[in-house]
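We close this part of the discussion by returning to an individual protein. Part of our work consisted of pairing the sequence of a single chain with a tokenised description of its backbone. No coordinates are needed to read the tokens, only the vocabulary itself. The amino acid sequence and the backbone structure tokens for this protein are reproduced below:
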Amino acid sequence: MTGEMVHSSFPWLTLAVFVPIVFGLLVMLLGRDDNPQPTRMLALAGSILSLLVTLPVYFGFDASTADMQFVEKSAWIEPLSVYYHLGVDGISLWFVLLTAFITVIVVMAGWEVITQRVGQYMGAFLILSGLMIGVFVSLDGLLFYFFFEATLIPMYIIIGVWGGPNRVYAAFKFFLYTLLGSLLTLVAFIYLWNVAGGSFDILTWHEVRLGRTEQILIFLAFLMAFAVKVPMWPVHTWLPDAHVEAPTGGSIVLAAIMLKLGAYGFLRFSLPIVPDASHELAWLMIALSLIAVIYIGLVAIVQDDMKKLVAYSSVAHMGFVTLGFFIFNTAGIEGAIVQMISHGFVSGAMFFSIGVLYDRMHTRSIADYGGVINVMPRFAAFAVLFAMANSGLPATSGFVGEFMVILGAVEFNFWIGLLAATTLILAASYSLWLVKRVFFGEVANDNVRAMSDINGREFAILGILAIAVLYMGVYPKPFTDVMHASVQALLDHVAISKL
């Protein structure tokens, strides 16, 4: 990993972090339920502006180097050598853009659906967006930890206030699982600060020399936090509960962005700081990843609740991501990052589609539907496309990442590649069976017959996501070009023994 940094003359990353947070606070303070339209307009303006301030980072990014770019650094807690230190490389850039993009989708998704405490709802998502971008751009360990933990609070409130009937249980489970996992990481951070001579600088940590036992213990400490967040089997049980109870916007953000925080942690901390332990314990990570891909894929097939099915499919798809990281080749890691971005589009689209059905029927049970294509043909066309992308159909974004990881896995070990490839069969099974039961056949009952097709707002959201899924599937080169130099530098760094 290179320690070079390209400092920014303009604080674009600070804007990317704090524009949504400031707008979120404004929306919360000014929001009124008796006249919610101005609140919604202010939230939409804030989310669009938040997306716009990330674009100069993309267009000004130099993809030919692995150096950190747009770096900002100023003293924060001086006695502990804690700095407000931000920067992006090819690994983190896309997640900044994805977070800002998904936030616009979420604000639009809750436009007509949320009628109670509209300001608090929209504000919580905008603040969450800024905190998540903070995770991806932090180059100081304590700053990263602050953002990483702070993301729990808005999501806890979103699930606990606007969620389903079992929302308090789901919110507590989500909060406790992820908080307990992170405490060991804080211990590891303090140890690294001590070893690095009183520095919380993440790039300095990358160069620290650690013994075998130290590396393994630190790897396990990181694993506790990041595995829960991904979530990996067997610490995934909070996710289906959280998804089922969360409002549609909460499910979209949870699947599209929050699961990526844990996976990103592996790339920024586990692999570069403890490379020998990463190699030594790769068998464990590969085994857990394959269990997620195969076993959780089978669990998804038997679900009768649409949200639970897509939640379990998220666990299976994220198993692919962690598999890609620990086979230590370019195809594997780049494929895993592409899969993370694609999963953001596809899972977000699928949860929104389920929300569209729920808004009309107020049920997520697959058995209550049937023949929806007869009454909602425009919506069905989008929903079938996203189900195909979820099952990895070529020319959709879902295919690109999975195919790259399978190629990388075959290069690493043929049998691991073969087991990973079973996801294509399992994903097709649960995705297409869901489509068959919900959309095709005769109209199942009068409730389905009374459903109306999507309106202009819903069409716009689904259309934007469909363009993203197809563009990435047909032409993934812009996505892989940005990350290539950084991934190569990471692999070179991990290959050098630090014992």
The chain is about 75% helix and 5% strand.
